[in-house]
Amino acid sequence: MTISVFLLDDHEIVRRGIAQLLEGEDDITVVGEAGSAAQALARIPALRPDVAVLDVRLPDGDGVTVCRDIRSAVAPPPACLMLTSYADDEALFGAIMAGASGYLLKQVTGIDLVGAVRTIAAGGSLLDTKATAAVLERLRKGDEPADPRYASLSPQERRILHLIADGLTNRQIGAEMFLAEKTVKNYVSSLLHKLGFARRTEAAVYAAELRKDGSAR
């Protein structure tokens, strides 16, 4: 049986490389691609792939949110494999909660990526057992932030909030997270709205207080 795969990455050269790698296998075919969260959410329901390979960081959102949304909107839902350039505990937590089947760094070898696609297509999981256990323990202890405003933020927004608390400008945040300054500005506007603040200084003070009482995760 051929495994149908959808690719989401904002870098075209990365998508082409992964597509070429997967298309070289007799049992895998790439049925669609997207460079943004909006494109992926529009295309995946119509294509209904077996596997969705999703970049965690995107210019208009994050792959974790895409994973959660398509798994609730598509039946049967595709198995989601998260790809990221950097290890991020918050994104890993979000991926597990969103129902992802795997979480890999982009430094993975081509052979391992192909194997990962086959594994999750067959119903397997590539999530580290220790990481999964840590998430379950966190849930058991009720360590999710009590403030529903903070809980409403996406992993990307939470990271930007804490970088604001560190005193970084939008340009500096963009350089840190490999995002366009305009994209960071949009994220800041979104998180300020969710938190009910008018100024970033208020958000910085709020994040600092979260750190003090250990509510931020």
Automatic annotation (TrEMBL):
Keywords: DNA-binding, Phosphoprotein, Transcription, Transcription regulation. The modification 4-aspartylphosphate is found at D55. The keyword Phosphoprotein applies. Residues 146-211 form the HTH luxR-type domain. InterPro entries: CheY-like_superfamily, NreC/VraR/RcsB-like_REC, Sig_transdc_resp-reg_C-effctor, Sig_transdc_resp-reg_receiver, Tscrpt_reg_LuxR_C, WalR-like. SUPFAM superfamilies: C-terminal effector domain of the bipartite response regulators (SSF46894), CheY-like (SSF52172). Residues 4-121 form the Response regulatory domain. One of its GO terms (molecular function) is DNA binding. It comes from the Bacteria. GO terms for biological process: phosphorelay signal transduction system; regulation of DNA-templated transcription. This is LuxR family two component transcriptional regulator. It comes from Pseudonocardia hierapolitana. The lineage of its organism: Bacteria, Bacillati, Actinomycetota, Actinomycetes, Pseudonocardiales.
